[in-house]
Amino acid sequence: MRTKVKNYSGVLLVLFFALLVFAPYQGLSQNANPKFKVVIDPGHGGKDPGTRGKNLLEKDVVLAVSMKVGKYLNELLSDVEVVYTRTTDVYHDLKVRATAANEADADLFVSIHANAMPAGNEGVFGTETYVMGVKNTGRNFEVAKRENSVIFLEEDYKEKYQGFDPNSQDVNIAFSIMQEAYQENSILLAQNIEDQFSKRAGRKSRGVKQSSLWVLWNTSMPSVLIELGYLTNPKEERELGSAEVQDYLASAIFRGIRDYIEYLKSTR
Fold it and tell me: How much is the pTM?
């Protein structure tokens, strides 16, 4: 990353500006509001159903889990404020979601999704949590294309998304710089969540991964995108439709966020 920076004029200036503007978001909130603000983003919604299983739509599963996560945070952590990007079956484009988090002056952005595989790969299952990355390879590229594809629903997407191409395997240097300031904290949160999925919720963790997800790039705070499981796996689809499993997943995400906040407090 640092080697590449030398090859682009003006990049150091952009990086300095990004660090100067966004640095306060790295730790606990420095605003007059003492509460730690978490934005919960249930993926997709409305005209955008997300991925599909035999019986379930991604937009419905992730909304149910997201509302449970927010409920845990509100009820069990008195110093946390929750902001949702949606609480009903409505459509918001990626830019609106990122803007909502930035305008809320949030400390964390947590986007919740469900995964899918092409036909013939129905045996794949498990959770994944993504942080911003600039190189898309293999399966990570397929996830990036799917989660970014909502951009194509917007008529003016080329202007609105600053020329970003969801089908490109490489992301330009300016794109990567915007989240670099938060990368360490994003990875810490992502690992906390995956650990909770595996050790406490009994899910198969496929680990923390990096991919060029637009909604993570454009949020000016540590950010993760969680894939709860694969709706294309028949067994996992049945489980993701269960209120009990949804509660286990929500509880794991809550504990991952809680542990992240406690770590920040311990390092003040």
Answer: 0.78
Q: Has residue 195 got a pLDDT over 80? A: yes
| Percentage of the residues of the chain whose pLDDT score is greater than 70 | 71
Distances, alpha carbon 265 to alpha carbons 27, 168, 193, 261, in Å: 9, 39, 18, 6
Residue 154: Cβ-neighbour burial (10 angstroms; 0-12, 13-18, 19+): middle
* Per-domain residue ranges of the chain: 2-266
b/e string for 94-105 if b means 16 or more Cβ within 10 A? bbebbebbbebb
Q: Which residues contact 222 (CB under 8 A, 6 or more apart)?
A: 25, 26, 107, 108, 109, 182, 185, 186, 188, 189
The span from the CA of 109 to the CA of 129, in Å, is 13
Q: Give Cα 80 distance to the centre of its chain.
A: 19
Q: What is the pLDDT of residues 138-181, one digit of tens each?
A: 444 454 445 555 555 555 555 555 555 555 555 544 455 555 77
The domain defined by 2-266 folds into: Aminopeptidase (3.40.630)
Q: Cβ distance 235 to 156 under 8 Å?
A: no
Q: From residue 56, how far is each of 88, 125, 236 by CA, in Å?
A: 16, 15, 11
Asked if 28 and 17 count as a contact pair (C-beta separation under 8 A), the reply is no
Residue 161 vs residue 267, higher pLDDT: 267
